[in-house]
Queue: 4 jobs
Job 1
Amino acid sequence: MSIFDRFKKKKAEASEAQNNKNTSAQPAAASKEMLDDISYIQEMQHISGAWQQYDILLAARGYGWDMMVDWAAYMESADLDNISTITVAEMANTPGKELIEEYRNRKTKGGIKAFDALAEERGQLAIGGISRTLKAPVKIVWFNQTRVLRFFTPIDDEELLTRYVETVIRRTFGKKDAMKLAKPVPKEK
């Protein structure tokens, strides 16, 4: 059974559970409470399809390769289970090289930070697996020396994904500020 099929099955089970007034099977929507801080998300564009694509423009300066690998390592430990893809590409619009088999079969174990194939700087890094928070597949793509992040998931819920992305950026999984929105970035005049 594919990851997408498992997600559809879990989604149907969650819907049935909700109809039975059992809310424990729903994805973690968390508090509607807002952070007393400005969002790191300047803009988000949502492209609908079989997989929802969320393109995020950060309100901070760009990031580099070391931060990308560090972020992927954080997601590996904080939220992603059953990692099914790790890809790199030389540039943003070039085909990626899948590294998941190499990652699974390496002799020296350890997390993504210890993965030798990520020692060389590249233009793009992506990691995908099952989000413990969203209870659904998610793939995150970082683009070196930019302010752009890209998220793919079957979940079609902009507010939930905004909360998730804010948590990814702030690295607050498992903390009191997880899955909370921050105040929008003020518009320049």
Job 2
Amino acid sequence: MSFRSEKHGKYILRPAVYSDNDDIREIFESGSFAGGLNVQFLRGPEPLASFAADGDHAYIIAAEDTEKGKVIAIGGAVVQTLFLDGTPAECAYLTGLKVHHDYRGKLAFIPRAYGIIGKTVSGCAATYTTILDGNQGVIRMLEKRRKNMPEYRCIGHYTTFCLGRGKSVIPVETDNLTGFDRIVAQYFSGKALAPCSTEYKGFGSKRFYCLRDSSGDIEACCFIGDQSASKYYRMCSYGGIYRAVSHLPTALFGYPAFPASGEIIKNGIITFLYVRDNDHKLCSAFLRSAAYASGFPMLLWGGEENDPLCCAVGKMRTVRYGSRLYEVLWDGAADTLINGVVGMEAALL
């Protein structure tokens, strides 16, 4: 990262380095998602490697408390090669500012950190990020225009769906990618922020599942991967109606089984989901069968509200959580660059 360390009182802003991993892991473990499903999102013992796995480059800024010799906040961007207006382009995903629980509301140098990140990703065609619906305080703070801060322009809503194990409804083929390159060129290239490559490590150790017609052409397909080497979730606790539902045998009714409090969630991640003509019934039959074949007790897939497959998956029995999707505009830029149906993958968020 091309900037020098900066002193702000007892804090230093500097590029994160490998030796910061333990402190960064502690930052992640000090927080959790808000709401009825209280979940921790964790990036394992080497968070910096986890960030790097999600793109071509990761630029992570660390804020160090010099009196304690400890990193207490991190933020940055992951640069990815994504489709934008039908062509590959370097885009930056803002990872969001993560602050250790003990320091929340106490840091005054956040605008300067954003300034550094903005310069770092200035060569990217577009910058985007997501914020969970439940983080209303963060949403209010970032949507309000402030001096020396970029504009967070909401361009849509993104839903992450949690699917159960499923059952074999139709036979699915495994690990035969014949014809998938045509699907990428004809289908995924038309979606803004869809990855140009299937080979980012952040997709996890994955297998390809597909259904073919009598001519051998792909009717439906996806990858299902295990991301646990770089990121995973821990169920902390349940609130509201989920407290009661979590004790029910939900898997018997086609919903995901609820893990016990404190348990690491074993899930697969669905990427590059394609269903011919966005057929709802075909989508359901294919995903249920692929989920069963994968062996994962729970699968995750995310879709933007204008994606027809979001509606198709939404008709299945799922647990879901929502996020706001933002284009981040720097230095007073006025034009929205991310247009049309968005195809970003939950695996890389």
Job 3
Amino acid sequence: MKFEICCKITDAKEYNQFCCFENSIYTLRISKNFKYWYYDLCDLIDFYADTNISLKLDVCEKDIKLARKLYGSHKYNEPVLREYESKVMTHSTTFDNSLKIIKENAIKSWNILNEENKDWEKCPIGSLLGDIEDFSNYVMLSLFAQNNEIITASRQKNKIDIDVNQKYTAGARFYLDAEKLAKDRLLLRDGEHIKVKNSIFLDKYLIWYATAERVGTEKITTPKMFFENSNKAFLNLFSEYKK
């Protein structure tokens, strides 16, 4: 199956990025009001140039030339972190899935899990946003300050819900060494996501993981509470990651 992605550059002030499904095409809008917009645009172009996914650019030549000038010699898989990237990146999942991750010593992409277990989820939660199938070949990561617990909460409801104060059952939040992942050229940037192909092995890249029990909070909580309490507990244990 052939996939297509569209990218548009905007001047929006209400978002840095915004993904949607327009005219039957998965579309990423990148705002030039975001300080590092040029990274996202050039990463997007270069990443998909190395794939069989068609990229449709709704971007003027002037913006592409400016982005390339600012981007310089950077690469989407460069072995160092950028100024806006945290040394620790996270991946959140449900508690049941976390038990499997710990047992198998690996965080695996949705497609690998689906191949290993035919009774796995019917579809990834991102499909409700129009995500293309290729995204499921990767483990998606978030920066330390990003609350990706809303993904876990949405997964439990099987619908997208971005309310950080909704009630949900806390799962697990994995804290990974982003510098090592980058150094080993596993860290990939596609303009929208920071991700790793196939699997991340815990024995090499895991720093720590949070659960309700480890953090000392109630299992029934909110994405906001679990996110904040987990990050606080992590920094108390690993003060070297404090800025």
Job 4
Amino acid sequence: MAKKGKDYFGMGRLISVIFAIIPLTSWLFGFVTRFQEKKYVAGILRLFLGWNIIWILDLLFVLFTGKICRILSC
């Protein structure tokens, strides 16, 4: 399972950056990651809005912090 504090299923930072660069994997893995965290509203928002602004934010956040963008905490 995913390790605490790491995104995209606990994979290393380099792998997370590669997945964040590809829009389809960023959208899908971001959605799945939020549902694994039991943040269902945020997961549903990622499902419908995850391929535009959220994708760009995820890319920047993964590059600079190693974690995906978390707009909602619910």
